[in-house]
Design goal:
The protein is mainly α. It has helices at 5-23, 30-49, 56-74, 78-98, 109-136, 149-176, 178-187, 193-218, 240-260, 262-266, 269-275, 279-307, 313-348, 352-376, 383-401, 403-416, 423-426, 434-441, 448-464, 478-489; strands at residues 238-239, 308-309, 500-502, 505-510, 513-516.
Length: 524
């Protein structure tokens, strides 16, 4: 039981109020970063006040959480932001589960699921348990513990209960008498009362949830034991013979596929010429399915190694050999999917989805190689940690790369080699692309047609990029602020372009036609 329960309630209420203050009618940019820092800071202060010390691995996890939360301030492209939010939220749940012991590197997949469930369950039940503990707490002489707060809390609870009741009666009385309604309106804005009640409601819900999470992190119900990752977490039930047949059959299928299709897997243009496929058909028919095969193969490996009963040396060796062969085949197939993707990029340029897939394939290949090493070292239990590291690496790569800036550079390089530059797609990119658009526009070695399109893209961007100073400070985003500043400072360089409004949307004339400055076309 906490020494000072009221501090848990106070910290949770402050954090919940900060959520409302930072996010209500505001974009999740700087606001998200600040809220994560507030949540973490409140937790560390509570731990210090309770005399509890976080494990050094929890501090490392905290640094990663803050780093991913900062992506919301630094980037405006959606995918890195979404992945970073998911990773930071998952990191905070993991931090709450292992704050004192730092056991998360030894978790198996089951342990991650169980601990995440416990933290979420504590969030929903912890406040009630803490209130019950307070009610049942007794002093040494057997009487209920007393303090000056025991008189304050009933008053606060009474106020919270009275507010919605009085609000309902005030609305009804205002409808019955205009003089009373005018008097109330001079003091309160009745139209905003439902909004305030709703906001108060979710602040209390969030506060109650956070109390439970903080309680789970700092005062867990029992001391956690360090997991043994190589100890099976469930009773094995499938015989080695059955699993061996499954793995052997899949390996045989993969080997036949690779041998028969070797020219088609790595033949590139030869394959297209012989079959009549276009570049798009060739890539679309291949790389997505092959990536799916790789992901499913990893799932099959994890499933069979978890449920297979191996009791003899031959069975252990056989399972390892077939598993390694499976991973080797998957790597070859993954190389084929990468080759198809690169061919597609060479023909049509880079897009967000292609860049995401490109990064994903590299991290998936790194994960597969790691699984091979773990299998050979008989350290299968660290598979979950390998998955976590791969997820962190993928998210970090998205944030560090600047996907939209990368797309601009690669597509401009294709234009320098004589390929067409897609202005319409450039207009769909986020403000992360603006510095690279500007840098390439100033390149004297680019063909005039490419420079012309980059100038048009920058003119479009100048019209469609809003002034960040008009937004609340909680919505500050470094990428958007920098882009706006660069566009305003260099606007004279593309003054010959003249975007125009049509149907409440900006357009620009190009090559005898017109291109929208606000297109939202899907591009794979």
């Amino acid at each position: 039981m906490p020494k000072k329960q009221r501090w848990f309630w106070l910290a949770a209420l402050v954090a919940a109020w900060c959520f409302d203050f930072l996010f209500w009618n505001k974009s999740a940019n700087l606001s998200y970063f600040i809220w994560v820092v507030v949540l973490l800071g409140a937790g560390y202060l509570l731990a210090w006040h309770e005399g509890k010390h976080p494990h050094w691995r929890s501090i490392l996890l905290t640094v990663l959480i803050v780093a991913f939360a900062s992506v919301m301030v630094l980037r405006s492209e959606e995918m890195p932001r979404v992945v970073s939010v998911l990773l930071s939220l998952a990191g905070m749940i993991l931090l709450a589960a292992t704050f004192l012991d730092g056991h998360w590197p030894w978790f198996r997949l089951r342990d991650y699921v169980v601990e995440f469930t416990k933290v979420i369950g504590s969030g929903f039940s912890g406040a009630a348990l803490l209130a019950a503990q307070k009610k049942n707490a007794v002093s040494v002489d057997g009487a209920h513990a007393k303090s000056r707060w025991s008189r304050v809390w009933p008053i606060l609870r009474g106020i919270l209960i009275a507010l919605p009741v009085v609000a309902v009666f005030a609305v009804l009385l205002s409808a019955a008498d205009q003089v009373f309604a005018d008097w109330i309106k001079n003091i309160f804005n009745l139209e905003e009362i439902p909004e305030y009640l709703f906001r108060l409601f979710y602040i209390l819900i969030i506060a109650g949830f956070l109390v439970g999470v903080y309680l789970k992190a700092i005062h867990p119900a029992k001391e956690a034991q360090k997991p043994s990752p190589n100890t099976p977490w469930m009773k094995t039930f499938l015989g080695w013979t059955e699993s061996g047949i499954v793995l052997a059959a899949v390996n045989l299928l993969f080997i036949v596929f690779v041998v028969i299709q070797v020219r088609y897997l790595f033949g590139g243009t030869v394959n297209i010429n012989e079959t009549g496929y276009t570049y798009a058909e060739y890539a679309r028919k291949g790389f997505s399915e092959l990536v799916a095969v790789a992901v499913l193969s990893i799932g099959l490996y994890m499933l069979l190694t978890t449920i297979t009963r191996v009791e003899t040396r031959f069975a252990k060796t056989g399972l390892t050999a077939l598993s390694v062969l499976l991973m080797a085949n998957v790597l070859v197939i993954l190389a084929s999917s990468l080759q198809r993707l690169m061919l597609y990029e060479q023909a049509y340029g880079f897009s967000r989805l292609r860049t995401y897939t490109h990064l994903f394939i590299y991290w998936l290949a790194a994960l597969i190689l790691t699984l091979v090493v773990l299998e050979l070292l008989k350290r299968r239990g660290h598979t979950a940690l390998a998955l976590v590291i791969a997820a962190i690496g993928f998210g970090a790569s998205l944030a560090i790369l600047n996907v939209d800036g990368f797309i601009v550079n690669r597509n401009v390089q294709r234009a320098a080699d004589g390929e067409e530059l897609d202005l319409a797609y450039l207009n769909t990119l986020s403000t992360d692309a603006v510095p690279e658009l500007l840098a390439n526009y100033a390149d004297p070695d680019l063909p005039p047609e490419a420079v012309h399109k980059l100038g048009a893209a920058l003119a479009c961007r100048e019209e469609t990029t809003n002034d960040p100073s008009a937004q609340p400070w909680q919505s500050f985003n470094f990428s958007q602020s920098r882009a706006y500043r660069l566009l305003q400072e260099n606007a004279d360089q593309w003054s010959q372009f003249d975007p125009y409004l049509k149907n409440n949307e900006w357009w620009i004339a190009m090559d005898g036609g017109e291109i929208s400055c606000n297109t939202y076309d899907y591009m794979d």
